[in-house]
Amino acid sequence: MPFHSNVLAAIGNTPLIRLKRASEETGCTILGKAEFLNPGQSVKDRAALFIVKDAIAKGKLQPGGVIVEGTAGNTGIGLSVVANALGFRTVIVIPETQSVEKKDALRLLSAELIEVPAVPYRDPNNYVKISGRLAEELAKSDPNGAIWANQFDNTANRQAHIETTSQEIWAQTEGRVDGFVAAVGTGGTLAGTAIGLKEKNSAIRTAAADPLGAAVYSWIKTGELKAHGGSITEGIGQNRVTANLEGAPIDDAYEISDEEMLPIVFDLMQHEGLCLGGSSGINVAGAIRMAKEMGPGHTIVTILCDYGTRYQSKLFNPEFLRAKNLPIPPWLGNKSSTITVPFQ
């Protein structure tokens, strides 16, 4: 009787889903890797598992110890899932601007949640820097010790995608993959998958899909970190070169606005039954751009990062969208039903 020994064994080996309308629009096969099916419901479960396993292997994490991380939400959720399964505790530092749904999920997973103001990385009170200092303090005071997961510069993150995501994509496409597109938060998903795929076939085209307000697009195109505009997306958008990004074989980049991303997210929901977050919309938009450049007949893979239910209070909130002058689909704005209930 086949079964997983624990929840950690269910991380990874997610299916590829053909995105019908994107594929038909471009004449290519555009496939989304369904990372929302991981136990923690996002692609970040992979990095979380590898970061914790690496800390254990190096003797840095002892039984009952604490895992500290600064996160926009999904990595913290993944770390909490892994920690609970292995007997560790989690302390998560999160910008207060992140969605209430992700904060609630962290609390449900028994993480100790610390909300801080959202400030740029250069500020000493940026959530990532606070989490690093907090880990140092807890390592001294907690009897079982503490580690800083440090997802942005801990290359165990990237290694997760070299060893798993890229290998799965290669096997699932039977080696017939022509391009890969992903947004950048830590850089681990794009860099690790690009490294792994190009080790199989150096001709595979790799690209970043970058929201406005981030600097990775400019860095890839010009070598300079420059940003402009802004985005409602969460968990992606980077303004520095992280250790996970360093040396990554990234061929190109696409800059995606919220106005381009949102109709894709809404279309995937209404016509394909896929309830996804904004980062997935950025990714699919990038995959469509790559497919149009490469021409019909190619296979492009991207990442469907997480469920849209994590952003219901923003991404699927007509009032929020209206305040940002962003498009609202008719089906979302119409809350009243015209059906007469057949009471007896």
Automatic annotation (TrEMBL):
Cited InterPro entries: Cys_Synth/Cystath_Beta-Synth, P-phosphate_BS, TrpB-like_PALP, TrpB-like_PALP_sf
Keywords per UniProt: Amino-acid biosynthesis, Pyridoxal phosphate, Transferase, Transit peptide
Record's keyword annotation contains Cell inner membrane: no
Residue ranges annotated for the Tryptophan synthase beta chain-like PALP domain, each copy included: 9-306
Any Pfam family: PALP
Gene3D superfamilies given in the database record: 3.40.50.1100
Signal peptide boundaries: none
Pathway in which the depicted protein is active: Amino-acid biosynthesis
Name this protein carries in UniProt: Cysteine synthase A
GO molecular function list: cysteine synthase activity
Keyword Ribonucleoprotein attributed: no
Single Gene Ontology BP annotation: cysteine biosynthetic process from serine
Main EC class the enzyme belongs to: transferase
CC cofactor: pyridoxal 5'-phosphate
Entry's EC annotation: 2.5.1.47
Domain of life: Bacteria
Provenance organism: Rhizomicrobium palustre
CDD domains in the record: CBS_like
